Amino acid sequence: MQNETMKISGMTCGSCVLSVQGVLKAVNGVADAQVTLDTGLARVSYDETQTSSEQLKSAVRNAGFGVEDA
């Protein structure tokens, strides 16, 4: 299991948090995703044999948010 922390930009409310969290959890191989509005951080646990950091970031970008390594 791999853990990744990402800095998410463009979140302004609780709905944004739920959206980012949902997008991340929908990626095949993601075991858990926790997103915090105050810090703008997403902490994701995933199976590196099923997905990658780049696939996670791509999913967040496709949802309309910015993302970079924290």
Architecture overview:
With 70 residues, the chain is α+β, with helices and mostly antiparallel strands. It has a single domain (2-69), classed as Alpha-Beta Plaits, CATH 3.30.70. It is 33% helix and 36% strand. The chain has two helices and four strands; from the N terminus they run E-H-E-E-H-E. The protein has helices spanning 14-26, 53-62, and strands at 2-9, 30-36, 41-46, 66-69. A four-stranded antiparallel beta sheet has the order 2-3-1-4, covered by helices on one side. Strand 2 and strand 3 form a beta hairpin. It starts with a strand and ends with a strand. The mean pLDDT is 96.
CATH class: Alpha Beta
> Describe the biggest sheet?
4 strands, antiparallel
Kindly identify the CATH topology. Alpha-Beta Plaits
Q: How big a fraction of the residues is strand?
A: 35-45%
Give the beta-strand count.
4
How many individual domains?
1
Average per-residue pLDDT, rounded, comes to: 96
Radius of gyration equals 11 Å
Give the topology string: H per helix, E per strand: EHEEHE
Number of distinct helices:
2
Which structural class should the secondary elements be placed in?
alpha+beta
DSSP helix fraction: 25-40%
Morphology? globular
Any guess at the CATH architecture?
2-Layer Sandwich
Termini separation comes to: 19 Å
- Spatial ordering of strands, largest sheet: 2-3-1-4
Q: Which segments are poorly predicted (pLDDT under 50) over 5 or more consecutive residues?
A: none
